[in-house]
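tokens incoming
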């Protein structure tokens, strides 16, 4: 599910190896709109990590980019094959990791939208200052080879702890759920998982000022 160009190979005996006369490249190019990273495993893109941080009393300073730009700042190893409307958004915040009898119980992953299971993202909003999506209709921020997504500024009174979001991409996709014919204007259309965004917050307290 990585974006890019692909070719189709055909092997009549199903072996994909051996006699070259039994294998052939079908003369079509397949263009997949979406994000790709350097990882090659099945589903590994969903596990790519994005790290941002929150600084004490600097919560409203945005310094968090999801960046696939081909020139001038794009994250190394990442690539996007974008089309007319290609946007990024995120899920609800994950729950907290917990411990049970000393064993770490990690928070369960929030999944990107899936029209088959009819589960759709509900982006975390409360922890961010009020913002408008860009463009202001629908959902998501344009994220392509020319434009990075800058995460909204955090709400100082809400960003009091570390948190985690799943990042989801809409590869110029118009799904069957919403009534419009426009791509990427509805939560159900953010179908490509592109990693996990960790917001880190570290507080250091003076030992003698805690009394
Ligand atoms: Ca739509």
């Amino acid at each position: 599910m990585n974006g890019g160009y692909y070719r189709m190979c055909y092997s009549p005996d199903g072996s994909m190896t051996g006699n070259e006369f039994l294998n052939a490249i079908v003369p079509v190019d397949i263009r997949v709109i979406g994000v790709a990273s350097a990882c090659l495993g099945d589903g590994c893109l969903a596990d790519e990590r994005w790290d941002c941080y929150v600084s004490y009393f600097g919560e409203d300073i945005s310094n968090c980019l999801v960046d696939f730009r081909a020139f001038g700042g794009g994250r190394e190893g990442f690539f996007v094959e974008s089309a007319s409307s290609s946007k990024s958004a995120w899920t609800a915040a994950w729950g907290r990791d917990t411990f049970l009898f000393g064993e770490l119980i990690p928070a369960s992953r929030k999944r990107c939208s899936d029209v088959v299971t009819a589960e759709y993202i509900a982006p975390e909003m409360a922890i961010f200052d009020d913002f408008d999506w860009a463009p202001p209709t629908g959902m998501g921020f344009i994220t392509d080879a020319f434009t990075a997504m800058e995460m909204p500024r955090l709400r100082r009174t809400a960003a009091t702890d570390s948190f985690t979001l799943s990042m989801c991409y809409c590869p110029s996709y118009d799904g069957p759920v919403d009534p419009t014919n426009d791509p990427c204007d509805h939560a159900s259309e953010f179908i490509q998982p592109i990693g996990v965004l960790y917001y880190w917050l570290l507080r250091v307290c003076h030992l003698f000022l805690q009394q």
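note: The mean pLDDT is 89.
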